[in-house]
Amino acid sequence: MTSRSGPRRELERILESAGPGAVHARTALGTGPVPDRLRAAILALAFARGEGGSCCPSDAARALAGEWRPLLPRARELARELARAGEVRLTQGARSLDPDAEWQGPIRIRPAGDAND
Q1: Angle at CA 53, nearest 5°, toward 108 and 96?
Q2: What is the pLDDT of residues 53-87, one digit of tens each?
Q3: Which of 19, 60, 63, 117 is 20 to 30 A off residue 40, Cα-Cα?
Q4: C-alpha dist (Å) from residue 47 to 86, 91, 102, 106
Q5: pLDDT of residue 117
Q6: Other C-beta atoms lying within 10 Å of the C-beta of residue 31
Q7: How far apart are the C-alpha atoms of 70 and 88, rounded to whole Å?
Q8: Where do the record's region annotations for Disordered lie (predicted)?
Q9: Is the pLDDT at 110 greater than 80, yes or no?
Q10: For 7-93+105-111, CATH number?
């Protein structure tokens, strides 16, 4: 593993711990298609941060690439897809977001069923 900091290193720690999100971290750190790796990074970070925690789509994008900004729109769309599937919940501030509604600005991704619903 590398000595990087930030979201990439967090995925490495998740994988090493074999705890919540480890299976997803393995996929995210792999060499598969970028959309699959982004989806896995979102899930790994959200699950590992646990109830009451959250991640941002940019965390997943930054975990995969130094030039992460081009990945951000796809990460946001994947977050919507995961919310539609009931795997995560999207929030903006204290407000839950409908994944099918129009919204903009920063969002947070939380595990589905988070006690802060």
Answers
A1: 40
A2: 999 999 999 999 999 999 999 999 999 999 999 99
A3: 117
A4: 13, 15, 25, 19
A5: 45
A6: 5
A7: 23
A8: 93-117
A9: yes
A10: 1.10.10.10
What does the alpha-carbon distance between residue 30 and residue 37 come to, in Å, rounded to a whole number? Answer: 7
| Three-state SS at 67 | coil
Quote the CA–CA distance of 22 and 14 in Å, as a whole number.
5
The two three-digit tokens of residue 76, written as one number: 């946001």
Q: Scan for tokens 């977001």, then name that residue.
A: 97
Domain boundaries, the chain: 7-93+105-111
Structure token digits, residue 7: 């979201």
Q: Look at the block and give the residue holding tokens 């994947």.
A: 78
| Phi/psi of residue 88, nearest 5 degrees | -140, 170
pLDDT given for residue 3 in this prediction: 44
pTM value is 0.91
